[in-house]
Amino acid sequence: MRVIICGAGQVGYGIAEKLASEKNDVCVIDVSPDLIRNVRDTLDVRGFVGHGSHPDVLEAAGAEQADMIIAVTLHDEVNMVACQVAHSLFSVPTRIARIRSQSYLRADYMDLFSRDHMPIDVIISPELEVGEMVLKRIAMPGAADIVAFGDGRIAMVAIECMEECPIVDTPLNQLTELFPDLNATVVGVSRGGRLFVPRSADQLLAGDLAYVVAARDHVRRTLGLFGHDEQEATRIVIAGGGNIGLYVARTIENRKGRTRVKIIEAGPERAVAAADELNRTVVLQGSALDQKLLLEAGVDEADLMIALTNDDQVNILSGVMAKRLGCKANMALLNNPAYHDFTDMLGIDAFVNPRAVTISRILQHVRRGRIRAVHSVQQGAAEVIEAEALETSPLVGQPLRELELPEGMRFGAILRGGAVLKPSGSLAIRPKDRVVIFAKPDVVRQVEQMFRVSLEFF
């Protein structure tokens, strides 16, 4: 696949790195010579210095032969014009744009992004995507990661195995016998920095991070079996009143529950704007690293501190300070992947990586075949893929035990009609089933082949 990426920042670089590792023909455009030099030096991609919305730059980047343009610069208008030019002058089939301004994203304006007006196939809003991820984490305390599949009927949950976890040291094939009515399947295990797809005879150990695919209404019970019985937070302090913090607070308010939120925002103008927009949320202006202000916000009695500023270090330090002052748990927004491996050591209970959220969203449109959703885990160490089975699929009609599946993939759940089915050796996949699969990078192409329409085989 030939892909043009406009923007070589963290998101653009991450997308280019992922696509280049899969042998796609990738070209990156950015106005910064330093960023393009870094891309050329570290990745097997082509790089051009220039504006991604300029026709001559797109032409030089090979837009006439491109299959897809992904515009993820810092400027919405550049992203939109790049997609328009790619469509009007070069007939690029698929156009993806990152749009950050909430004004463009209002429901009554969405007709703007149609083929007759501004032809953008996929709009990605990092703030909304990350905000939704934060809200899911709030709703499922104890989960290190949680993503919905199958129209919300299925969830992939990353869960740390605690010492008191009742299923530790038990072979996975015995879990079905112990809990026959539990609709959950362990599809991946991270142990000692290594992520692998477990066999049925493998055991979970204390300290493992298990990736579990479960029916939505079985998630809380699954968390309990792994030793997590934390209650949903009702007293929350948010550091950062930007788009993400505001979205989270506004959504919690609109749900009209008993959860109460306080926001700490450093910028005076932003703090006033947030206070004007929110009704039941208390907004305090000042630094999230000010201990007196944290105590004034009631962090010593809070259930959860969520740090959502633009500064990773502020997010880490404010989260650590909050727990030292008595807050029960914390969550941090971390852009720099270098920090991810140290979160436990630093005292961060959960983190959200905006780049990973955005890349996962884009991958579902890059993947071939009937791929409905993709979530990348551990910086691309594996993917959770939701795909629709077609009549021509080699998976259809045979019991799962008879399929010759590659190493490095595992079925997590099957959505048939409105029912979530747990994979078993006797179960046969039918056409139109939606299958959730955990796959290592080296078998993703084979997973795509299993779900490609018949004409694509030739």
CATH homology superfamily of the largest domain: NAD(P)-binding Rossmann-like Domain
Anisotropy-based shape: globular
Q: Output the CATH class name of the largest domain.
A: Alpha Beta
Please name the CATH topology of the largest domain.
Rossmann fold
Helix content: 25-40%
Domain module count: 4
Oligomer: single chain
Main beta-sheet annotation: 6 strands, parallel
What value does the average pLDDT take? 90
CATH architecture of the largest domain: 3-Layer(aba) Sandwich
Euclidean distance between termini CA atoms: 16 Å
Number of strands: 22
What radius of gyration results from the CA coordinates? 23 Å
Low-confidence stretches: none
Structural class: alpha/beta
Strand content: 25-35%
Total number of helical segments?
14
Give the strand order of the largest sheet, numbering strands 1, 2, ... along the chain: 3-2-1-4-5-6
